[in-house]
């Protein structure tokens, strides 16, 4: 569907997209040559997978030795010789570590989900999640370099011509925000992908997995039917850790323009949690069995064989884990196989299936656009039981559920490159109400002010003010275009010239349509970031207060741009009747889950 234009740059550039997933990771890339139409290419050969034709992903696993050095990663980490070396050398395995990057905000407050997430393997050897992320990003870069050098004519020369001019696109779950993006960028710097300066950091960009999946679906002509009719389309990226649900429609403004039509969702019900539910069941089932010490291996065998092959809840299922000598009739183990009822195995998948169905229906309910189609992508969507269960449930709601024929697990990396090149989403829906706490002039006739009169104070100008007022800058459920700016005016007073101003940006995540006070629904206000700017060059007239005290006052606007996948900020002020601007710095506050 895309009619991609020629690359207009003056020198060759490489774009690398890393889909660092919970269980598997992939790489896609595009070589941008001046005057040439860019193409999207996947990395299909990795170390220790050279014999597998068309392999598009590797396990997201790293082994560290006791000194904290990486000893094996990716497909190399699941070789038999690696298992032996790890056992002999007491190496430590890191897996599912992506989920440690989540914040309390992205996790949410669901107690059942919290219990499941508590079972995620811990980070190894006192390493931080940024350090582990960095190690794996560095490994992905090595894989990309090796593949490009070996797969292209004059590959070494090609790599040398672009290795210092690479833009990176990192995909992440819909629910992740600036705090997670900030730490991912830190990991990219630590990995040596880019230098630690403003120019280097700007070469790392982000795209949500939902939006990357939309681009993938467009490139693979999956949306042609829905696009022609102008219907809304729900894209479900079912991955290892999260299920990301987004809804779009083609914009009336053009074929290559799409609009987000509902607040995107992110749920911790990915494929790894099928394993978690299986483990919980098997641990209880084999509690008094002589094979209770083999739970790890039994669950591993379930993941590799029973889970992907499961297709019917009314058929007995088997987990082959031992030899013909391994028997425990009291616990349904015979000839090295654990027998389970199909209805029990279906329960392992049920939370994910219900999550997808309910999330899609919620998108349909909240959108004003007619939604007729649902596209499933991501590695988990390749599971036939999941796909057909979702398809059957949503068919009852007149929804057409489909999945691309080829490589659904490449959606995030291929789609991330398409996002960089094509950028078809022109507007997005805000998930929260953005704003800042400020003060207001005290009004003795306002009951809300009177109720808070104990907090009033007199400022340098001699005026009574009430603190704790929430001033919304951008309300929730607002469709925001990429070029639209939102701003709020601020005043700072000081007896000395003001050098740096810092403003804290907050997000209100509750249900009130017009939040006003910090002391109402307090738990749903979360700190988003601090915005700091140098205003020493902004006019600061010296004024006299009511008691003869002299003070400086600076007036400035914080200008916010929410329309992209990453928040951008500037500070603006008036000087001689002309608006001037400068950059502002964003510092995120991360509350780890």
From TrEMBL:
InterPro entries: ATPase_NBD, Hsp_70_fam. The keyword Endoplasmic reticulum does not apply. Keywords: ATP-binding, Nucleotide-binding. GO terms for molecular function: ATP binding; ATP-dependent protein folding chaperone. Pfam families: HSP70. Gene3D superfamilies: 3.30.420.40. This is Uncharacterized protein. It comes from Hebeloma cylindrosporum. The lineage of its organism: Eukaryota, Fungi, Dikarya, Basidiomycota, Agaricomycotina.
């Amino acid at each position: 569907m895309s009619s991609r234009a020629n690359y207009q740059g003056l020198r060759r550039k490489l774009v690398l997209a890393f889909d660092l997933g919970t269980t598997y990771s992939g790489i896609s890339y595009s070589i941008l040559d001046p005057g040439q139409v860019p193409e999207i290419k996947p990395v299909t050969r990795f170390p220790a997978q050279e014999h597998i034709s068309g392999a598009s992903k590797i396990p997201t696993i790293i082994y560290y030795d006791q000194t904290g050095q990486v000893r094996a990663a990716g497909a190399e980490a699941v070789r038999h010789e690696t298992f032996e070396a790890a056992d002999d050398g007491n190496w430590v395995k890191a897996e599912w570590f992506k989920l440690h990057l989540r914040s309390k905000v992205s996790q949410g407050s669901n107690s059942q989900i919290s219990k499941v997430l508590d079972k995620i393997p811990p980070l190894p050897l006192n390493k931080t999640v940024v350090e582990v992320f960095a190690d794996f990003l560095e490994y992905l870069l090595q894989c990309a370099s090796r593949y490009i050098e070996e797969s292209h004519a004059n590959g070494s020369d090609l790599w040398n011509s672009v290795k210092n001019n690479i833009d990176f696109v990192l995909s992440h779950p819909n629910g992740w925000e600036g705090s997670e993006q900030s730490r991912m960028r830190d990991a990219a710097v630590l990995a040596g992908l880019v230098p630690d300066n403003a120019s280097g950091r700007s070469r790392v960009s982000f795209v949500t997995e939902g939006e990357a999946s939309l681009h993938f679906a467009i490139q693979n002509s999956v949306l042609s039917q829905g696009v022609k009719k102008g219907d809304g389309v729900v894209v479900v990226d079912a991955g290892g850790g999260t299920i990301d649900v987004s809804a779009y429609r083609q914009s009336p403004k053009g074929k290559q323009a799409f609009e987000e039509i509902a607040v995107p969702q992110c749920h911790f019900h990915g494929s790894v949690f099928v394993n978690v539910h299986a483990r919980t069941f098997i641990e209880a089932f084999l509690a008094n069995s002589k094979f209770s010490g083999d739970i790890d291996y039994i669950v591993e065998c379930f993941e590799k064989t029973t889970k992907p092959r499961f297709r019917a809840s009314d058929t007995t299922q088997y987990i082959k884990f031992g030899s013909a000598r391994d028997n425990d009739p009291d616990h349904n183990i015979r000839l090295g196989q654990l027998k389970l009822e199909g209805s029990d195995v279906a329960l392992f998948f049920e939370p994910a299936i219900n999550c997808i169905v309910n999330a899609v229906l919620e998108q349909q309910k909240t959108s004003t656009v007619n939604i007729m189609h649902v596209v499933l992508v991501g590695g988990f969507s390749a599971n036939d039981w999941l796909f057909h269960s979702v398809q059957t449930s949503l068919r009852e709601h007149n929804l057409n559920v489909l999945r691309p024929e080829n490589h659904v697990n490449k959606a995030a990396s291929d789609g991330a490159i398409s996002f960089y090149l094509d950028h078809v989403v022109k507007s997005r829906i805000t998930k929260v109400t953005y704003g800042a706490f400020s003060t207001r002039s005290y009004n003795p006739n306002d009951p809300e002010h009177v109720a808070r009169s104990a907090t009033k104070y007199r400022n340098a100008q001699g005026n009574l003010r009430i603190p704790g007022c929430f001033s919304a800058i951008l309300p929730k459920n607002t469709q925001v275009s990429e070029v639209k700016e939102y701003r709020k005016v601020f005043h700072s007073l000081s007896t000395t010239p003001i050098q740096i101003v810092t403003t804290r940006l907050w997000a209100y995540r509750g249900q009130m349509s017009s939040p006003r006070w910090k002391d109402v629904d307090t738990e749903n206000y979360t700190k988003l970031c601090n915005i700091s700017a140098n205003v020493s060059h902004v006019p600061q007239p010296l004024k006299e207060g009511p008691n003869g005290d002299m003070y400086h006052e600076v007036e400035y606007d914080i200008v916010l741009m929410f329309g992209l996948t990453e928040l951008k900020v500037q500070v603006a002020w008036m000087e001689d009747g002309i608006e001037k601007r400068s950059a502002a710095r964003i510092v995120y506050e991360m509350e780890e889950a």
